[in-house]
């Protein structure tokens, strides 16, 4: 008897080929995705991909130009010269990880052996990239200007404290330094080679906690996608109950049914996002009133994109198994690459580039702009536009597919 | 009122409906009788606009269905085979929803719902959730939901599937009332007794083809089936059989101690019994073989309706 039931269930399962395909495809795709993102697969490509760093050389001296030139030769960094004002704005908008500023008097400080006037202003949302960048910069600055600066500093020190020191002895000490005996130079160099690190978005009371924003926006969008996929399942319930057929008997058009469902999904999506943000405000203190207009518009744009995604699922899936398979695979993949599961900056650069195909990415980045970067509505509008565009494209595809498939859906 | 010409429909390699033709007059109850898979629901789905035919035409009240779907949809109501209602809504809310799809003005819709709930005998339960209803009650709401926009034509696709005899009888009464109100009804079923009770004219459909159509009397004439009286005797000899044939002058077939007399039962029954007495035959059993659709169907298709 057990064998009979087993055979029957397997037969039913394998009768839906799309569902079978998705059942195996989902784990394969996810394994590949996570292996690629976190397992070092494709890591070679990501290591050679340089971090784009803005450079503002205010000194324009031989030494500062030499530093820029040496840093530009590094495989890990690609320097882009920018005026300081523009550079700060670009970093603030999240376009670049940071800007290295070589202040006026850079060369004079090297020659005088005093502290080098240089600063790295960075986007705190990309702290991990910054950590890597900082170590690369320090290592190379030391080799480029560090020894010159230290020699100058030591020379001044000897002249002040040991005015009678023979020049041959000074030469010997400097030769020791060049040959690698750096115990002294390190201690002296630390004073001159300090790289001032400044987060470009100043901490203030109105700015949200980065981790909190990531958690709220990432989770909210991912869970919203699952909710909307559930609404899509409602159409299959209607099919099973016969109410879909009855709807078709009425003067309604197929697209009326689709848009009706989409409207419901949109309302639910807006409600769900609103509740999640209000909850985060009450419980975690997320500053949702920083720019309420931008937040409302961002919620609307995200809700539209997500609900149109739900409609696309409705238009494609003809059985519950297909819907489950499709929604699981698409939502998990979009969430993984879009930054819902883990912040984007911990992923390889190639994954960060792929992320732009995900609704999650644009949603999360938009909420970052509102809560973290404190950008103005005008500056956030392009992201809202992209979400609306994604929604529109998915809606157009859904309408076409749904009109074509509605009868197949009824009689499937 | 409805004209169907050369209507065909295939699903992949299966031809579900094969060039069928029939007409339905205003105010009649037209039965589509056939076994499961005969093509009844496919025909209804094409007539109710949700399924496109491969070929052929359907006109409803003068409108060509392919070009005037919306006018036709307003003229027709469809009672689907499934109980197509929302379980989590009350009866009243279900009816409000389905009525609003036809843009019936709200005040008029409320009046219509009250009237229909009264007609189907569920006024008292109007605020109860559908999921609390019995199968028969759900079937009645299912019918009411098709009548909210006051259609001229009602398609009923096996509306009594799975209901108990009492509820079935209640549904029959509703259908008869609706028909008396002037609604033309197209009724599909595989139950002979439903067609016999309700339908003015019948189309027998089998394997996608209409085998015969007409009134029950017309179908009887088209088939070989005749009314007959079957009589069993304790014993009957050849002489008695010949005497009986002579007295009755009707077609008699015999088998052992049983004879079958083809006749108009109402007119000939007393004459047959008198003749048996005259021939000193002792009747052991007597059965009236009236013509019914079961027999006609068997005669026309060569198979039982539930084959």
What descriptive keywords fit this protein?
heterodimer, A: alpha/beta, 2 domains, 17 helices, 71% helix, B: 307 residues, alpha/beta, Rossmann fold, Alpha-Beta Plaits, 14 strands, 37% helix
In a few lines, what is going on in this structure?
The complex is a heterodimer of chains A (412) and B (307). With 412 residues, chain A is an alpha/beta fold.
Report on the structure:
The complex is a heterodimer of chains A (412) and B (307). Chain A is of the alpha/beta class. Chain A has two domains: 231 residues, no CATH class; 150 residues, abc type-2 transporter like fold (3-Layer(aba) Sandwich), CATH 3.40.1710. With 307 residues, chain B is of the alpha/beta class. Helix content of chain B is 37%, strand content 27%. In chain B, β9 and β10 form a beta hairpin. The two termini of chain B are 33 Å apart. In chain B, 38% of the residues are buried. The chains are: A alpha/beta (412), B alpha/beta (307). The interface between A and B is medium-sized, with 14 and 24 residues.
> Portion of residues in helices of chain A?
over 70%
Succession of helices and strands of chain A: HHHEHEHEHEHHHEHHHHHHHH
**Averaged pLDDT of chain A, please?**
79
Query: Spans of chain B with pLDDT under 50 lasting ≥5 residues?
Result: none
Q: How much helix is in the residues of chain B?
A: 25-40%
Percent strand of chain B: 25-35%
Radius of gyration of chain B: 24 Å
Number of domains of chain A: 2
Rg of Cα set of chain A = 29 Å
CATH architecture of the largest domain in chain B: 3-Layer(aba) Sandwich
Query: Considering the protein shown, what is the CATH homologous superfamily of the largest domain in chain B?
Result: P-loop containing nucleotide triphosphate hydrolases
Strand order of the largest sheet of chain A: 2-1-3-4-5
The profile of the biggest β sheet of chain A is: 5 strands, mixed
Distance between the termini of chain B: 33 Å
Number of folding domains of chain B?
A: 2
Question: Can you identify the CATH class of the largest domain in chain B?
Answer: Alpha Beta
Instruction: Give the distance, in angstroms, between the N- and C-terminal Cα atoms of chain A.
Output: 30 Å
CATH topology of the largest domain in chain B: Rossmann fold
Report the average pLDDT across residues of chain B.
Answer: 88
Biggest β-sheet description of chain B: 6 strands, mixed
Largest interface: A-B, 14 and 24 residues
